[in-house]
Amino acid sequence: NAGVMQNPRHLVRRRGQEARLRCSPMKGHSHVYWYRQLPEEGLKFMVYLQKENIIDESGMPKERFSAEFPKEGPSILRIQQVVRGDSAAYFCASSRQEGATDTQYFGPGTRLTVL
Amino acid sequence: KNQVEQSPQSLIILEGKNCTLQCNYTVSPFSNLRWYKQDTGRGPVSLTIMTFSENTKSNGRYTATLDADTKQSSLHITASQLSDSASYICVVFPLFSGGYNKLIFGAGTRLAVHP
Fold this sequence. Notes:
By secondary structure, chain A is mainly β. Chain A has strands spanning about 5, 10-15, 20-25, 30-35, 45-50, 55, 65-70, 75-80, 90-95, 105, 110-115.
């Protein structure tokens, strides 16, 4: 009964490189959410996806950031041409249903460091 | 602008003592309010979820209260243990049309329990 899996746990990139963060939701969950947590700040919503669909990407920067949740395989958060300000912890969460009271289960996060 | 403010920012207590963490929010209308526990280097774990019509919810030694009139919530921890050392995050789910899960996170209270 594995929980939400994220990899890698730590990722170091130089400015201008690409970062790919992967998230495998809990078994039976078809709703995935990505959040970013800057040091000493609360988590901020980025994007909400269902299988093969982006439902809400209002929290994601319009440039350099993209997300997908293919029919098969994990959800991917992609950051192109990373800058130092992208350094943060990126958390993925999943839920069984879309709903006000449905619990989101979080993964352990990927800590991105941009040199 | 929607906001979730938590106090204190950090707290140190001795093992076995009780403590209360505060959350004030301006998000309105809202569907539910959640408390999460986040251990260092880990993802948040749900403790309680309360709808706007609930006043209190317990989970073991954790008891959350909600006053929708004053827009305040508190998390009370009884008989603290060393393992309670973590950040406690108050999260509000705004009432959007469409029901998308865009939680608004407070910055958290960092609790340290000392022997």
